[in-house]
Every structure is written in structure tokens, then in C-alpha cells.
Amino acid sequence: MTIINKEFDRALDYIYSFVDFSKTRNLRYSPENFDLSRMEKLVELMGNPQLQYPVIHVAGTKGKGSTCAMIASVLSNAGYKTGFYSSPHLVDFRERIKINNRCISKEEWITYVDEYKEIIERVEKVSTFEIVTALSFQYFADNKIDIGVIEVGMGGRLDATNVVDPLLSVITHISIDHTKILGDTVEKIAREKAGIIKQNRPVVVSRQEENAFTEISKIAEMKESELLDVSSLFSYKIKSKNLHGQYLQVTDELKKNKKVYFLPLIGDHQAENLLTALAAIQAIGNTGYSIPEVAVTEGIKSVIWPGRFEILSENPLLIIDCAHNPDSFVKLCTTIETYLGGKKIHMIFGVSEDKDYLKMLEIAKPFVESWTFTQSTHPRALCTAELEIAAKKVNLANYQIQDIKSTISDLLKKNISGTVLLASGSMFIAAAVKEIIEGSDSNC
Description:
Layout: H1 3-16, H2 37-45, E1 55-59, H3 64-77, E2 82-85, E3 97-99, E4 102-103, H4 106-120, H5 128-142, E5 147-151, E6 168-171, H6 179-182, H7 186-193, E7 203-205, H8 210-222, E8 227-229, H9 230-233, E9 234-242, E10 245-252, E11 257-263, H10 268-286, H11 293-301, E12 310-314, E13 317-320, H12 326-339, E14 344-349, H13 357-364, E15 370-373, H14 384-393, E16 399-401, H15 404-414, E17 419-424, H16 427-438
Parallel strand pairs: 1-5, 1-6, 2-5, 6-7, 7-8, 13-17, 14-15, 14-17, 15-16
Antiparallel strand pairs: 2-3, 3-4, 9-10, 10-11, 12-13
């Protein structure tokens, strides 16, 4: 291991030595742990770097990462120095912090951790996510970005990112997830997500269930924020598609003009994310940013967002997907039916312990021929014994239990003709397979 790698690991170990709610099974479910006071104190001690550049702030249950990636890609192609903060990472921690799709370097991350240690340690009970978010804000400020695209970690109202003063807020599709923190109904979750809406700042809202849209509308009205309803602004028609992307004819419902975009992300849900990104780009343009149509076309065409029905191998066909709750599994199975209809599917399945995995198995059962149940190394990963119990409850017969490295090795050796290998159930399973196939630095 090189000196730089050792120092990078040391810096990461230091950050992870703080409270990491994403990795704790019980502490993360205590609502009293989630407020903005620690984050507000931390960024104040740093000089509020998040207020030094315009921000597009994006929340939602599904699609927020893809939507952010599209917006950031378009802005970069328009010539703007664009910061993009996302979480969690898929393989490499540095994926979280990018400028014009370039990851922060290991040397830069080491420098920021060391430089801000003294300030970090002045904030009692500060969390890992809060530290990473604050350092990202500082990195963008120091690099004098023109605009930042900031993805909410979880929820919105109390998320560490919600110390920004956004030019524009965006709320992607909302469904049931993280119920112990955000609430057990779509209305409660919508209220938490809508907590990113700021006074007199516009908000772009993806197509939603009626109850969710009603809750968001109430908060937008209270904040005197213009609500831009994507479903009334844009519609689309798929012109052609394959496993490498789709051509979409998008209609601007107000201008009544049609344009065709190539999107290298597949599935109807990604088409919906595209419409949300286009609505956001249009809103950003209305604030004075110059975004030529060629930048939009090229930005969408060149967007990179790994782990979303991503092909890692053609022979055998090996695909990873980060679907991790029932709603995303419905979308995944629709994509399977559309793009892989008639093919046998072997699913490599692992899940986090806080997910409705029984429902996920029930949804996927009609589409999957055989299964391997496995477990990532993440502390919140559900043990395979629990998956076996769940499998029996939904009458799954054709399954095996194996560690993930052995699974991939064995399945690739077998090279079963006509069988598609699909790894899903959590981001950590998708990431583990990607790292086995491509190595640890594949995205940076």
C-alpha cells in the first residue's frame, strides 16, 4: 500500500470514528439524534461555505441521485464549474464529492480532514455525515464553483444538507422508505422531504401520488414558493431502447415543441427522472443562467450514474441495480419485463435490515427463476438466515446461500447460457459485485 493510500485510509478512519447513523442499527432510529443544530454550528465555525455559491437542492425517495447527475452533467456541459455532492458512494468514497465529474483526490481529502480537525472536534456529538457534508461544502467554496448540485442524504427537513440557501429545490418521486425516521405514510414522508423548500424559492416536483403532491403543495404555498409540477410541464414518448440506453421524444407542454434525447440510463423511471431534470434546468435558466440546448442534449447523453441497471459483463450478462425498497423493486421488475423478457433471471439478493424485504421478494418472485441470498459487509446488512425464513414465507424454492465473492466466481464459471445474472436488493450488494468485477477505483 502506498503512503497516500495509507494516509487516505487514516483520514477515512478518523471520519468514521464519529457517530455514523447510517451504520448503526438502533441509534439511527432515535428521532432526537436528527436536528440541524450540530450542522449549523459546524458550518458556522467554518464560515458558512455553503452560502458562497448557488445551490440546487434535491430530495426524494427514488431518483434523486440520477436526477442530480443529469442536472450536474448539463450544467458542466454548459460551461459552469459544477460541484456535485451525493451519498452514499457506490465503490469509492470520493465519488461523493465531484467537480465537473472529477472526484476529489485522495491528497485533497487528507488535507481537508487534517485542516478542519480542530473545528470538527469543537462540535459535540457531530456525526460522520455532517462532517463529510461540511467538508464538501468547504471544498466547493475553496474551488470557487459556479453552482452546486446537492443531494439530500435522508428525508430533507432535518438532513445535514438543509443548511443551504438554494436557488432551486427539487423533489423527486416519494414512496414509503425509512419509516422509523420519516413516518409510516406517504403524507408524513412528503412533509419531511418538503422541508427543503425555502421562502420565495421555486420548487420542481416530480410526478407524485395525489396525497404526497397535496402535502408538498401546502408547504410550497406556505413558503410562497412557486411550485413547478413536472407532470404538467413535460411528457415523453420512447422512440427506441436497448440495454445501453433509450431515445426519448420529450414534449414541452407549454411551448408545444418536441425534442429527442438519448439517455444512457434505462427504464421508464429514468425517463421520469429526465423530465424532472429538464424542468430543473429550465427553472435554472429562468434565473439568468445561459444553458444552450446543445449543452442539454450533450449533458443528458453523457450522464454517468453507476449502479442503475448497469451492465458489468456481456457474456454472461451481469447487471447490477441499486433497487432497495418495494417501490424501486416494482420499477426494477418492470425494467426486467421490458428489456429482458423471456430470459431466465438469477438474482443475487441481499438487503439492509430496515427494509421490507418480504415484500421485495414477493414482487420479484414472478420474474426470477433462481436466487442466491448473500450478505454485504455493511453493519446494517440482513443476515442470510433471516432471508431464508422470508423465502419460505413466500414459497421460494430455488435458492442457495453463499458469500458474495464465491457467488460471483461460481456463477461466472458456470456461464449458464441464456441466464441473466442480476445483483440487487441494496446499494451495498450492487457495490460489492461492481468492486469484485472492476476493482476498488472504478468510478474515480
